[in-house]
Each structure stands twice: as C-alpha cells, then as structure tokens.
Amino acid sequence: MAMDNKKMMLVCDQTPTVTRLVSAIKKAATAQEKSYTIIVTSQSHVDEQLRAVQPDIVLLTPELAYLKTEMQRQTDEFGVLLAVINLSDYTQMAGANILLTAEQLLVT
After folding, report:
1. What percent of the chain has pLDDT over 70?
2. pLDDT of 1 strictly over 50
3. CA–CA gap between residue 81 and residue 54 (Å, rounded)
4. To bridge 62 with a disulfide, which of 12, 24, 79, 87 should be the other Cys (CB 3.0-4.6 Å)?
5. Which pTM value belongs to this model?
6. Angle at 43 between CA 63 and CA 53, to 5 degrees
C-alpha cells in the first residue's frame, strides 16, 4: 500500500527516549517503503505546530495520555487525527506497531 508522504507529530516530554522513538518509527517506515515526516513538539507548542506543520496525525506519548481530552479539542479544531501510543509499543520502541496505529487511523 503506497502512501504519499504523511506528516506525523509526536507530542512528548523532551527526553532522550524521543530520539530513539523517532528513529524506530523512521526505520519501520523505510523498511515498509513508506514516507513519513516526523515532527516532535512539546505540549505547550502543539497549537502553533498544528498551524505551521498541518500534520496528518498527532501521537501522544504514554506519559502524556492524561492530556488526550485537551489535545482532542485542539486537533479537532484543525481536523487532525489523534492517538496515544500504546505503552508497551513505546517501552519496546516498536516502531512498526506505532506506525500501524497511525496508519489504521489514517485509512478510516
């Protein structure tokens, strides 16, 4: 299933884990011959990034899952899909599973 370049925005705390997470997702996308632009932002910059980047999907890292309701209002305003990354996928850096989560939302 060929997909055009999609923009994925990760909302997370700025930790060293973020770099590994982005790497895992990019590696999975490359292995599947898919193209994703991944933007990383903090919760405080979501609104401006939604305007600037216009992502196709926003993924919250598990430690920010408590912000989902608040984020949902923001993403709905821009017509952008929102999901929380599964904790086990996050801790295992399962890029392929995280990509699958995003793609399942993108095709519905």
Report:
1. 95
2. no
3. 11
4. 87
5. 0.90
6. 125
